[in-house]
Amino acid sequence: MTIEQTPAPARSDVRRMPGGSTAPTRPFKARGMLLTAGAVAWGLDSLIFGTDPSGSFEEALSSITSGTFQLGLLGLLSVLFATNALGAGRIARSAIRLEVGILLLAIGSTIADGTGVSDLDRVGWILLDLCWPLSMLGMFLIGIRVAVAGRWRGKARFWPLVAESWGPIVVPTFGIFGGTVAGVVSFVHLCVGYGVLGQIVARKEG
Q1: pLDDT at 22
Q2: Is 162 exposed, middle or buried (0-12, 13-18, 19+ CB in 10 A)?
Q3: 3-class DSSP state for residue 103?
Q4: Whole-number Å distance between alpha carbons of 186 and 174
Q5: Most buried by CB count within 10 Å: which residue of 70, 104, 126, 184?
Q6: CA angle 28-30-34, nearest 5°?
Q7: CA 179 to CA 53: how far, in whole Å?
Q8: What single DSSP character describes residue 20?
Q9: Which helix (H) or strand (E) element contains residue 191?
Q10: What pLDDT is attached to residue 13?
Q11: What gap in Å lies between CA 195 and CA 156, rounded to an integer?
């Protein structure tokens, strides 16, 4: 009697590392998917209710969807940091740390708005609320730096700038045309920009 042993097929989602160990070829998949999910969720909320929610229900829903998007941004920043996308120097890495700090404050503002505890008649709450647009401005500047640094290749090099132009495009639209039109623009931009960027990150090999 002969016994034939057929080796198990190699997994396509891992790569062989020195010493025989394996590591995922797409280590950023979860963070990329979170960014896409958050972008689409917040985009849909903007499309349905506009960019200026009114009432406790709309405010709470907006905070949940935008908060999910903000968590996706934190994931994106961690990938940018891990891959030295802005460069390997101290200034580049410090810029990401600064953006993380501002974004965390923006998340705090989102939670405060969603729970109804913020009071924009007070200076402290106003400053906290400003962290949200400041964080989006910071992401725009980071997108420029990623394109200039050129450490990410192909679409990954320029798509962060496409995605992170949300603020310079949507904010003026809101000021000129109001929340309803801005909501439509925001939805399209989030899906085309951050939604696609999330998939680029999810497919990026380590």
Answers
A1: 56
A2: middle
A3: helix
A4: 10
A5: 70
A6: 115
A7: 9
A8: G
A9: none
A10: 44
A11: 13
